[in-house]
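Dear colleague,

Thank you for sharing your sequence with our group. We've completed the structure prediction you requested, and as agreed, I am returning the results in plain text so they can be pasted directly into your records. Please verify that the sequence below matches your submission; if there's any discrepancy, let me know and we will rerun it promptly.
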Amino acid sequence: MARGSVEQRSPGTWSIRVELLPDPQTGKRRQKRTTFKGAKREAEKRLSQILHEVDTGSFVNPAKLTVGDFLRQWLKDYVETGVRATTKEGYQIIIEKHLIPNLGNIPLSQLQPAHLQAYYSKALNEGRSDGKGGLSARTVKHHHRVLSEALGHAVRWGLAGRNVALAVDPPRTEGKEMQVLDGAGITRLLEAAQGTVYYPAIHLAVFTGMRRSEILGLRWRDLDLDGSALAVNQVLHVLHGGSVIFQKPKTAPTAP
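Please find the predicted structure tokens below.
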């Protein structure tokens, strides 16, 4: 099994060393060294990931790592366990349907701001998957945020020297004023929903401000009839394809 160690270089910066198998041609000792930025426990976690990749044969030399390889690795090592189910699904769609097809073949070490700027321009003009025009500036800006977050981890993991997304200006978006129902609008909404299976959910949303996922996750034991209150103890997300995910809420408010 591969072995390695973590050594501090400066506050918040760690050197990760991994002993690789000897060169099959010369028998010489081989090592991999990479710099990691963050807490020591995070550096140790990254070391464990690298050792696992070396032992299972899935390790890719950073010099040969493409943007596509890295993004899939980031989905597996960070997104899979580090974000909520709906966020993970959104990241996967952006990465697999947009970022990898357009940027995936570029070596991560050679990714430049110009590559990103060219992709954003293309996405704005012809980025829709159905081939009928471009994506909105708001959507492309979200792609930029996902890519920047991923590249930030690449820098922390020692796979990239800098986050090139920070040198690129994402598309500008115009803020839209939120349209809120007034009293008459709420009355019409409730009257239209009366007698349908959606009425209880709409009534709860209107008078408590609960999110759809919070309403869908309610159970009878979450209802306190004596206290006239609802406890939000879980949320339910319905993903694309019909998969259902139950999760604990970030906070557990009580709705009167």
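Summary note from our side: The two ends are 57 Å apart (CA to CA).

Kind regards,
the structure core
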